[in-house]
């Protein structure tokens, strides 16, 4: 059985398998502000229980997470979510109902769909990869490199990172039209890195 001390402020859990029948009372972490999971095998249910036990969690770092087909993150307190080398071959990443979320960092995320819903304070996003076939942010939908209709835009994001396997100015301009309040745009092309100030 897994137990976390109720006085923990920071926890780093790694190189293990978390059981899907985790009991919420044993994980009660009323003071935990930062949680890192790395090289962890975990089910969607176990992540839900773990997050619901962290009442003031502000930062969640997930690296090399395994055995979860659909990852759903929902929290009223999270400000930063960072994925690194996570979800290879997985179906869907859903970040939903995160009213305080300011940064969503997706380094090395490779899944079919990324959905971001109800994140009204989101300011930093990316890098968004062409390997993700569908990205939905509120009412804005990207299908691969095809920019969405010009009727929708995300006005809160002011720092955006995009990742491409080759130069594609048309796709970059299409994405730019959807983020009218950008201050910084980072474009990663294969091994090259370019920074634009908008």
From TrEMBL:
Domain of life of the source: Eukaryota
Segments forming domain F-box/LRR-repeat protein 15/At3g58940/PEG3-like LRR: 5-187
Pfam families: LRR_At5g56370 (PF24758)
Protein name from the UniProt record: F-box/LRR-repeat protein 15/At3g58940/PEG3-like LRR domain-containing protein
Species of provenance: Aegilops tauschii subsp. strangulata (Goatgrass)
């Amino acid at each position: 059985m897994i137990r976390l001390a109720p006085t923990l402020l920071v926890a780093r859990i790694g190189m293990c398998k978390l059981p899907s029948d985790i009991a919420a009372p044993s994980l009660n972490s009323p003071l935990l502000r930062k949680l890192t999971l790395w090289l962890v095998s975990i089910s969607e249910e176990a992540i839900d229980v773990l997050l619901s036990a962290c009442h003031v969690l502000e930062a969640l770092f997930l690296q090399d997470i395994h055995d979860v087909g659909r990852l759903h993150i929902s929290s009223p307190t999270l400000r930063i979510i960072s994925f690194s080398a996570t979800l290879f071959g997985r179906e869907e990443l859903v970040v939903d109902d995160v009213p305080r979320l300011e940064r969503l960092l997706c380094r090395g995320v490779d899944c079919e769909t990324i959905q971001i819903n109800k994140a009204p304070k989101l300011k930093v996003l990316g890098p968004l990869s062409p390997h993700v076939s569908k990205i939905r942010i509120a009412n804005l939908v990207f299908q691969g490199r095809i920019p969405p209709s010009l009727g929708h835009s995300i006005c809160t994001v002011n720092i955006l990172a995009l990742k491409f396997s080759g130069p594609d100015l048309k796709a970059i301009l299409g994405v730019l039209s959807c983020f009218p309040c950008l201050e910084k745009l980072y474009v990663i092309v294969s091994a090259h890195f370019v920074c634009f100030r908008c």
